[in-house]
Write a structure and sequence with these properties.
alpha/beta; 6-stranded mixed beta sheet; 30% helix
């Protein structure tokens, strides 16, 4: 048997290729939209991908299951559990099999068992793995049900998909799933669908796998014996889910476009064409690092640096319903496009080399970074207003006195709420999120603005004047 772990740092998302070397068959569990890495791995090991299994309807990335079914003729194995509102749609034209609790999927001499583990979502499945003729599973692919050190959040259907009142029910289902799951052997390996950095839980560990025995001893979710207390702790202080999660639920339920059928963005070398697009309401995203963007950028563009947080902030800040231009370094073009498509942003129509765009355009601007020490007199004298773009939880714990608060992810929809009676100093925890926020504000015409370099962390060291909870 071959077991290969794949990990997308941008999404903190894990997927797995399972193959039977004796028969040359393989399946992929929770594939990402970009399926070439799986094909390459299978080919290198003399395997043919025959199926794609999904643990649930994902909210945080576009699944590659249908891509595999369309392009490779692989069987799409998806859940038939849960509520009628959360059944897969538009799959009749694809080779597929609906899965129920207790079903099995054969991959040559390998057996994958199906467990219904609702809680994160009503249809959520986990998959046990047996090699050869043994009756004992060696591990479980838990998807977004059980993580290392945490468990899947039950409130996404409520907060992201608009299914009001489902968080409490999901929490109760999660408690029951954990009780059933805890009866399995301690030696089972746990292969989760996400690691640290994912918004599908609030305290995921960075270790890629664990064992059930270790999780039963160390994971807080197994310490509860009272369902109501468990649900309260599970649902308390869950961070706001990115707004694009609602879009992903719809896309993965009804089916995304096939990547090979998407139009590749056209390259442009004409800054006038770029400027005209901005004037016509096209959104333009510059993916350079924030320091370069701050020094000089095309007026009307906003900045999300291409790093591990890129896909998350793009999902928050990019309008799925408007055309998108990207300005990027040539070496980053493929990575940027892949990351955008991984969360269903398929409306990229043009791209341009970022340095060329800035050099050739006569409509450029910049913004200043200031340290807390440099900004404190302006703030204390009322000459400037602080805009805190951290999360609600961070702001409530402690903040600069008099600071207004708008979370970065919600900023595009709350531009009208931004204080406008004086210059702004934009602040987050370290200066990273506030740099993105500063670019969004500038792109929306708010120009008397400064980014607090070092953010709240440095403010506490240099100034230490704040309001604590």
């Amino acid at each position: 048997m071959l077991l290969k772990h794949f990990y997308d740092d941008n999404l903190a998302q894990a997927s797995y290729l399972v193959g039977c070397q004796a028969t040359g068959e393989a399946v992929v569990i929770d594939p990402a939209r970009e399926i070439e890495p799986y094909i390459k791995e299978a080919n290198e090991n003399g395997l043919t991908i025959k199926g794609a299994l999904e643990t649930h309807i994902h909210a945080d990335f576009v699944s590659g299951g249908r891509e595999m079914a369309e392009r490779l003729g692989a069987v799409l194995y998806v859940s038939d559990e849960g509520d009628d509102d959360w059944k897969y749609e538009n799959i009749d034209h694809l080779p597929h099999q609906l899965l129920k609790d207790g079903d099995e999927v054969k991959v040559g001499n390998v057996t994958i068992g199906v467990l219904h583990t609702p809680g994160h979502t009503p249809e959520s499945l986990s998959f046990t793995l047996k090699d050869g003729g043994t009756d004992n599973a060696m591990g479980v692919f838990t998807g977004d049900f059980l993580f290392v050190g945490d468990v899947g959040r039950p409130d996404l259907l409520d907060k992201a998909a608009g299914a009001e009142g489902t968080a409490e029910k999901g929490g109760q289902q999660m408690f029951e799933s954990l009780q059933k799951f805890s009866e399995l052997p301690d030696y089972l390996q746990i292969w989760p669908g996400h690691g640290a950095g994912s918004a599908c839980g609030k305290s995921l560990g960075a270790v890629p796998q664990s064992t059930l025995g270790y999780e039963k001893k160390e994971n807080w979710v197994f310490s509860h014996t009272d369902a109501d207390e468990f649900v309260k702790e599970l649902t308390d202080e869950q961070p706001a889910p990115p707004v694009y999660f609602a879009e992903m639920k719809k896309v993965n339920k009804s089916g995304p476009g096939i990547v090979r059928d998407l139009n590749d963005p056209k390259r442009t070398d004409n800054p006038k064409e770029l400027e005209e697009a901005i004037d016509n309401g096209v959104q333009v995203l510059d993916t350079r690092d924030s320091a370069r963007f701050a020094k000089n950028h095309v007026k009307g563009t906003f900045n999300i640096p291409i790093n591990k947080a890129f896909a998350n902030w793009a999902g928050w800040l990019v309008d799925y319903d408007r055309d998108l231009y990207i300005l990027t370094d040539e070496k980053d073009h493929h990575e940027v496009l892949t990351a955008l498509r991984s969360i269903g942003i398929d409306n990229v129509t043009h791209y341009m080399d970022a340095t060329q765009a800035v050099t050739m355009s006569d409509r450029t601007e910049h913004y200043h970074n200031v340290t807390p020490e440099e900004s404190v007199s302006m703030i204390e004298n009322g000459e400037a207003k602080v805009l805190d773009v951290r999360s609600e939880e961070e702001y409530e714990e402690a903040h600069i006195e008099g600071a207004a608060h708008i979370y970065l992810g919600e900023l595009p929809d709350k531009i009208d709420e931004v204080p406008s009676d004086r210059p702004l100093v934009v602040q987050c925890g370290s200066g990273v999120r506030s740099a993105i926020a500063t670019s969004v504000l500038q792109a929306n015409g708010i120009t008397d603005i400064r980014n607090m370099d070092g953010g709240f962390g440095l403010w506490k060291k240099q100034v230490n004047k704040l309001i604590e909870a």
